[in-house]
Design goal:
heterodimer, A: alpha/beta, Rossmann fold, seven-stranded mixed beta sheet, five-stranded mixed beta sheet, 12 strands, B: Rossmann fold, two-stranded antiparallel sheet, 11 helices, 9 strands, 42% helix
Chain lengths: 314, 286
Amino acid sequence: MTVSKNPRTAYGEALVALGKRDTRIVALEADLGKSTQSVLFKAAFPDRHFEMGIAEQNMASAAAGMALAGKIPFIHSFAVFASGRVYDQLRNSICIPNLSVRICGSSSGLSDFGDGKTHQSVEDVALMRALPNMSVVCPSDSAELTAMMEELADWKGPVYIRINRNDLPFTIPLDSSYRIGKVVKIRDGTDAAIFASGSMVSKSLAAAQMLAEKGISARVLNVGTLKPLDRNAVIGFAEGVRAVVTAEEHTIIGGLGSAVLEALCGVPHAPVELIGIHDSFGCSAENYDALLEHFGLTAEAIASAVQQILEGSS
Amino acid sequence: MAENTKGMDIAVVRELKKTALNLREHVVRMIGVGKAGHLGGSCSLAEIVATLYFHTMRFDPKDISHPDRDRLLLSKGHSVLIQYAALLELGVIPLSERGKVKTLAGMLQGHPDMDRTPGIEAVTGSLGQGLSIGVGMALAFRLDNRPSRVFVIMGDGELAEGQLWEAAMAAARFGLDRITGIVDRNRIQATGPTLEVFDIPDIEEKWKAFGWNVLTVNGHDIRAVAAALEHAAGLQGKPTVIIANTVKGKGVSFAENTAAFHNGVMSQAQFDMALAELQAARAKLA
């Protein structure tokens, strides 16, 4: 697989492209512009970029005020702060009136591997998913991210965008047409269904390859939109297989795994296993892969989960 | 202070005083008998809200979505009854809603809900967020060259919220002179006097240190309130805050200066007494 553009760079460039097309787009930053890459927007549109200082709560409610005055604000911080520190502001200032504010949760999950548990977001999807009116997207590569951004000028209501800090391999076919809210099959298979989001999509593709070498056929589904989740698509893709596995760089409480189980609730389905972080904060590590491995977020773990279900059911 | 406000026509002042009493009556009637309602912090704002809506603000009740209108945000959202009262008096909210506050069938929620209620400009109520919303509005209006002013009413107890001071810094940093903050200094918060519950000394000095112009007025003196609002409009380059000294529950004797009617329940006798007192005050004006 080829290595795609860094997601943060792709984000910054996509925001500039959006800003060119639509003058309603404004960006608010809390002194992390070099990390989030909102600096690209600042360079292109200095009048529409607002450095709000290290004051995320004010930034979030100010974005509500801008949206009420007709703007489409993008607010930026690390995912852990963009979701948790400003939770009440997102809830009351933005989500209750269903304002079209975009929350860029950068350096999400464990991707800020060096900075440790205070800076790693293991629960942001759970928090954001629970908020009425909030949409939650989690791109698996820079191409998907760029396609998502295209839709964000006109998408109604608040959107939380979960962005990885590190280079991610291309996972989605480059010619595929993207739509927020779709679950996309990126590999076909008949024995198992692996639902994945973000960085775990490429790991799931690798897992499917490993399983194929053992004669097990697994389909891989990219859940780029965690909310609103296409329930019928999840039910459809989970049909006819003997194992369902979900894979996310997030706690298994309230994230993708929970969302898939909620979707499958009430319909007959194969046994489900959740790959994710088990009720724990992150920690510092020497590199991203080492940290993912520490938490069992690997292709091997996904493949093994599929195998265990299949062995148990046979 | 500007001359024309100082020399405000006596008839205009009398009319605004009457309007303030009308607003208090709406508040009392919205709360009714046997139900909890934020009487105290609504009544302390009656003259200020009357002056804003009926004298100072660019606001056309027949065109409440005009993009150039001024905005009034009640950061102390629990006192929204006084804003409902003004919107009732202006005909923006139908009078038939007055008896349906905090009911499933009504449009008047316990806290400001812009989706349900015409004339409400933002969702507030989780304290500390209104000034930030105002900062965002002011930045957007400046970007679009709109004339709109933004008025944000805060409680003195609310000043304990850290986000307000983040917003205060931002408003000064961006030179948002179209924002006028109003602190309803009634000196009583939900559980008692601010001095005892959580004293915040030197409020004027704090706002000055955060880069704001500060005006202190008697919040029940229509002339002084109108003059301060007009004076603030002429101050350029910095936001202005008006510290309004008020009496919690003003105009309803049993509710004055007590935390009991922060969110209290009126008996039938108290309800009748409140209306009689307001009626007597109105008669005295005429």
